[in-house]
């Protein structure tokens, strides 16, 4: 199975900050990496697919990059609604797997 | 606007079968563009993919749960279902249904629509 490891596990930031979250795969997954945002008690929402493509309706301050085993999610100019948990997910091989999450708070 | 909604018992006794249904509205489950999935998230844990079903009935399960999982689809009701047998307390989790796109060489595949989630507790 492909293991996904996110860092950091938690992150404190302020409105307006630029933050970067990292996701590492245990083996190469090409660009088969998706990012989700999850708020407490809610389902995850898709932000980025195929490592760097912005899902419809997602603000341009979100961006993704990477390939192979190392990926990053960057948020430029944090907004109050961005404080949430961020998850990466690989779709390169079965079973699909998720990172443990990065909690972004103030 | 696509909407997915989980339904089913919130409390299941140990050794029994957990059954949930996901009702899809705003889209046809017969679409060739999507697979229909179940995920779960135990309290304080990460997300675990359980498996998917295509409208034809084709399935793929997570090997870690394969011996206990059955997915089914009812295209006439636009629903798909999860059955997880021989449950224990370790199966206590929020269960999500989700839509996954069919793989495309340019866009890959991803979960683009999710249900709100249903907390199922396994307890006597």
Could you name the key traits of this structure?
heterodimer, A: 106 residues, mainly beta, seven-stranded mixed β-sheet, globular, B: 124 residues, 11 strands, 0% helix, 51% strand
What do these coordinates show?
The complex is a heterodimer of chains A (106) and B (124). Chain A is mainly β. Chain A is built from no helices and 11 strands. Chain A has strands spanning 4-7, 10-12, 18-25, 33-38, 45-49, 53-54, 62-67, 70-76, 85-90, 97-98, 102-105. In chain A, strands 2, 4, 5, 6, 9, 10 and 11 form a 7-stranded mixed sheet that branches. The N and C termini of chain A lie far apart (34 Å). The mean pLDDT of chain A is 96. The model of chain B has no long low-confidence stretch (mean pLDDT 96). The termini of chain B are far apart. In chain B, a hairpin with a 5-residue loop joins strand 4 (34-41) and strand 5. Chain B is mainly beta. In chain B, the strands form 2 sheets. In chain B, strands 2, 4, 5, 6, 9, 10 and 11 form a 7-stranded mixed sheet that branches. Chain B has a 4-stranded antiparallel sheet with strand order 1-3-8-7, with no helix packed on it. Chain B is globular. Chain B is built from no helices and 11 strands. The interface between A and B is medium-sized, with 24 and 22 residues.
């Amino acid at each position: 199975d492909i293991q996904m490891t996110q860092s950091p596990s938690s992150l404190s930031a302020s409105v307006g900050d630029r933050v970067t979250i990292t996701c590492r795969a245990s083996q190469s997954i090409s660009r088969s990496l998706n990012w989700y945002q999850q708020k407490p008690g809610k389902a995850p929402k898709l932000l980025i697919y195929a490592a760097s493509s912005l899902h419809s309706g997602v603000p341009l301050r979100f961006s993704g990059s990477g390939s192979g085993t190392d990926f990053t999610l960057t948020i430029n100019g944090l907004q109050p609604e961005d404080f949430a948990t961020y998850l990466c997910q690989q779709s390169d091989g079965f079973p699909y797997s998720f990172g443990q999450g990065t909690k972004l708070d103030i | 606007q696509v909407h997915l909604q989980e339904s089913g018992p919130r409390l299941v006794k140990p050794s029994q079968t957990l059954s949930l249904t996901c009702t899809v509205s705003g889209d046809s489950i017969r679409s060739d563009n999507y697979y229909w999935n179940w995920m779960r998230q135990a309290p304080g844990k990460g997300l675990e993919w359980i498996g998917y079903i295509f409208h034809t009935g084709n399935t793929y399960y997570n090997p870690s749960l394969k011996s206990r999982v059955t997915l089914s689809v009812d295209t006439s009701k636009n629903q798909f279902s999860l059955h997880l047998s021989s449950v224990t307390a370790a199966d206590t989790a929020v269960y999500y249904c989700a839509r996954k796109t069919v793989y495309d060489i340019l866009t890959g595949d991803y979960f683009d629509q999710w249900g709100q989630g249903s907390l199922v507790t396994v307890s006597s």
